[in-house]
Design brief:
Elements lengths: L2 E3 L2 E10 L6 E6 L10 E6 L4 E12 L2 E8 L7 E2 L2 E4 L5 H12 L9 H4 L5 E4 L2 E2 H12 L2 E4 L5 E4 L12 E6 L4 E5 L12 E2 L2 E10 L4 E8 L7 H13 L8 E8 L5 E5 L7 E4 L8 E4 L5 E6 L7 E6 L8 E4 L8 E2 L6 E2 L6 E3 L1 H19 L21 E3 L3 E5 L1
Parallel strand pairs: 25-29
Antiparallel strand pairs: 1-2, 1-4, 2-3, 2-16, 3-6, 4-5, 5-6, 7-10, 8-9, 11-12, 13-14, 14-17, 15-16, 16-17, 18-19, 18-22, 19-20, 21-24, 22-23, 26-29, 27-28
Helix pairs in contact: 1-3
């Protein structure tokens, strides 16, 4: 076995290349000095495999250096800030570019255009580990991801490419775990997740290295729909847990109101970014509330989906809607306020004289007629009779909104 890290020989170690996520390795060096944490190094084998890595941990055991490496630039465990992505034409390319800038990782140039151009309505990235943010995005896109040998991050779907020829001996076949153990001279570039071996797709590849031998244990996937037991359980757990961060209700303050009554929010927890144009759900069918800046609200994610934040509750102490819209789509359904039965009037609805006004106007007409009938000379008119004004309302609204009663 001939393996080295930046020309420092490896005595023994373990190297794992998973189907999803970063590859990693733990090695014992035949050297007097080790590496610095965060240092970028290259792993090389006599079998032609080269891996770009970052030193994650170092220690001396009986004055012998031990190192742990991780594929990429070391940014997958970095804590990154919350970010809100929205706007017309938003795609996975924009969200991924933002993630790469925040994490310090580099995206692979081999990511398919169909993945990069995938349309995303909006996306909420919470504050947390970079690797968790990438897991959430790839699960939503329905693709996998891994760190390639050159240290870049790739996203996509495996194409089940057959392996190129290399020399090996089959040491064992483990039916229970769906794995095959191979004896090889050194780690080789042909054995990679996503390719096929004996007609079956390779899941995880793990090298066990000692001074005397090199073993490659490859987990095989029986078909495109059936994983090995370990990978099946891992995938189930990942699919179940990635949405957990987006479950629950989160406090926020309204900072602005859009023309469609959606709101811009400033979450109380800095793990969430400021959100824009978030819809408001009143909880009642046909009712919409136009909130005011400064209102304290609670938002959540429909179906725990980072693309679907909505406001669902608000603090009554700060709830001062500037406008309330109530609609009904039922053919015979009425909106009834406080149990009333009369149609609600609107501006420009017609109005007519009240009964008191009608009586008064009739009396006026009668007296004017009597006055003009018995009128003497113009220079000596008869005195006008006394007439009291009408008592009560002088007009009555004759129609209103037919479906709104109060």
């Amino acid at each position: 076995m001939d393996l080295s890290i930046d020309n420092k020989p490896v005595i023994q170690g373990r190297l794992q290349l998973p189907a999803k996520g970063p590859w990693w390795g733990e090695f014992t060096l035949d050297a007097l000095e080790s590496f610095d944490v965060g240092q970028r190094v290259t792993v090389r084998s006599s079998g032609g495999l080269e891996l770009a890595a970052t030193v994650q941990r170092t220690e001396l055991v009986d004055e012998v250096p031990h190192v742990r490496l991780v594929g990429g630039r070391g940014g997958l465990n970095r804590s990154i800030a919350a970010q809100w992505h929205t706007g017309p034409g938003l795609s996975a390319r924009t969200v991924l570019a933002s993630w790469a800038e925040a994490s310090g990782e580099q995206l692979s140039s081999t990511i398919a255009a169909s993945v990069l151009n995938a349309s995303i309505d909006r996306w909420v990235r919470s504050k947390g580990r970079s690797i968790d943010a990438l897991d959430a995005l790839t699960e939503a896109l329905g693709v996998t991801w891994r760190v390639l040998p050159d240290g870049t991050v790739w996203l996509g779907s495996d194409t089940d490419t057959a392996l190129d020829r290399f020399t090996y001996d089959v040491v064992a076949r483990r039916v229970a775990t769906g794995s095959v153990e191979l004896a090889v001279d050194a780690p080789v570039p042909q054995l990679m997740p996503g390719r096929t071996f004996e007609g079956r797709k390779i899941g995880t590849v793990e090298y066990l290295l000692t001074p005397q031998k090199c073993r490659a244990v490859i987990a095989l996937i029986a078909s495109t729909e059936q994983d090995t037991l370990q990978e099946l359980v891992t995938a189930m757990v990942r699919r179940a847990l990635w949405r957990e961060r987006y479950r629950g209700m989160f406090r926020a303050e309204v900072v602005a109101v859009q023309s469609d009554w959606s709101v811009d929010l400033r979450p109380a927890n800095p793990e969430w970014p400021e959100l824009t144009a978030v819809p408001v759900r009143s909880g009642s069918s046909g009712v919409r509330s136009k909130l005011s800046p400064g209102a304290k609200v609670a938002f959540e994610f429909e179906d725990a989906d980072p693309m679907r934040p909505v406001v669902t509750m608000w603090d009554t102490a700060t709830f001062e809607p500037t406008e309330l819209a109530i609609n009904t789509k039922a053919a015979s359904g009425d909106v009834v306020l406080q149990g009333g039965s009369l149609e609600v009037a609107r501006r420009t609805d017609p109005a007519g004289p009240s009964s008191a006004m009608t009586t008064w106007m009739t009396e006026v007409s009668t007296r004017v007629s009597a006055l003009t009938a018995g009128m003497g000379p113009v220079l000596n008119p008869a005195p006008l009779p006394t007439l009291n004004p009408p008592v009560g309302a002088i007009a009555t609204i004759t129609s209103g909104a037919p479906k709104v009663k109060a």
